[in-house]
Amino acid sequence: MVSKIENTEFKIITAARKVFLRKGMDGARMQEIADEAGINKSLLHYYFRSKDKLFDRVFSDTFKSVVETINKVFSTSDTLETFLENFIKGYTSVLREKPYIPNFVLHELSRNPQRIVEYINTTNFDKSRIISLIASEPDLNVRPYDPLQLIVDIIALCIFPFVARPIISGFLFEDDVEAYNSFLEERTQHIIDFVKASVFVQK
Predict the structure, then answer these.
(1) pLDDT band of 1, cuts 50, 70, 90
(2) Which of 46, 124, 176, 195 is most solvent-facing, going by the fewest CB within 10 Å?
(3) pTM value surpassing 0.90
(4) Domains present along the chain, CATH in parentheses
């Protein structure tokens, strides 16, 4: 059973995320967050003494599922092909569950990119793992490819439909939610096939 404290904290974090998305860190006000959460400002300050501490909590919670997914992919992938499939499936799954992540990160990137770099550095994300996976593949199987470019390519392919949802949904699907969701389901496999075709030499 969820305690009253846990429920209040959840409401605050959910409300803060909405306000930070609308206004950004600088434009958000604690009173606005309290109003969104349906509590008074004094109670908000009891849980989080400053806007910066609240933002840190929202930011870390937002990134947590992404980091956990990526770390799981790295720990369970023993070949480059397995890594590509698991990474794309896992990453798009997180974005579909929490589609606010890309825009939230973009807000902060324009304001304080160093915060994101510092947070990623605390996750112990080992970028050398993808390099070693590529290096372990026979030269005849893989095209010449910069591993870091590969990661950026995959992230861009996965993120864009969520960042550009108003355009894709409104222009391509005339705001048909079901059609847009079907597009996202199909896109995961499309990205996998596209990346494999770019990376592996066709036999």
Answers:
(1) very low
(2) 124
(3) no
(4) 1-49 (1.10.10.60), 59-199 (1.10.357.10)
